[in-house]
Amino acid sequence: MLKTMAGYALAVVGFLVFSQSAMARDFADIYTDCGLGAMIAPRNGAVAAVTNVTWDSGTTAITSDISSPDSCVGGQERTAAFIHGSYEYLEQDLASGSGTYLDTLMVLAGYDSQTKQAGIDELRKDFAKLVSKPGYTNKSRFEKSEAVYDLVYKRQGIAS
């Protein structure tokens, strides 16, 4: 009986802790800014919401808001997914200094036409340092993608 009561108490505490972060964002915003829907339809809130509800009843949207609420703000989860999904092509574009994948990355990261080239130049410089480090080639695709993500958002003062 004591174990059951302790379990209920733990569940209530967990709910209260997690509900604080969920309440920080309007519920509708969770369905448009987070989860699979936001990744699939970043510029169309209605499609994002429908996708989240249809795909998994909004579970991924709510989970991403609870576990990492900052990831839903500003489309950072889309940028991370893009970097990971196109890493090899992005690596080539970073090496050459231009290309569709690099252009897409800059748009997803929020660079405008006035700051894009300076962002590319700095990113290329930092990327060159990154790939020249010993052991870089032995890193997993995830680790390499994470490193590029960090370079993009540290440049803007956003990364953790």
What secondary-structure arrangement, pairings included, does this model have?
Elements: H1 2-23, H2 27-33, H3 35-40, H4 45-56, H5 59-67, H6 76-85, H7 87-96, H8 100-108, H9 116-131, H10 141-155
Which features does this protein show?
160 residues, 10 helices
Description:
With 160 residues, this protein is mostly helical. The protein has two domains: 2-67, no CATH class; 78-155, no CATH class. The protein is built from ten helices and no strands. It has helices at residues 2-23, 27-33, 35-40, 45-56, 59-67, 76-85, 87-96, 100-108, 116-131, 141-155. Helix 1 (2-23) crosses helix 5, helix 2 (27-33) packs across helix 4 (45-56) and helix 9 packs across helix 10 (141-155).
List the total number of helices.
Answer: 10
**What's the number of domains?**
2
- Report mean pLDDT, rounded to a whole number: 74
Straight-line distance between termini: 43 Å
Helix content: over 70%
> Which series of helices and strands comes N to C?
HHHHHHHHHH
Principal-axes geometry comes out as elongated
User: How many β-strand runs?
Assistant: 0
Please compute the radius of gyration using only Cα atoms.
19 Å
What is this entry, summarized?
By secondary structure, the protein is mostly helical. It has helices spanning 2-23, 27-33, 35-40, 45-56, 59-67, 76-85, 87-96, 100-108, 116-131, 141-155.
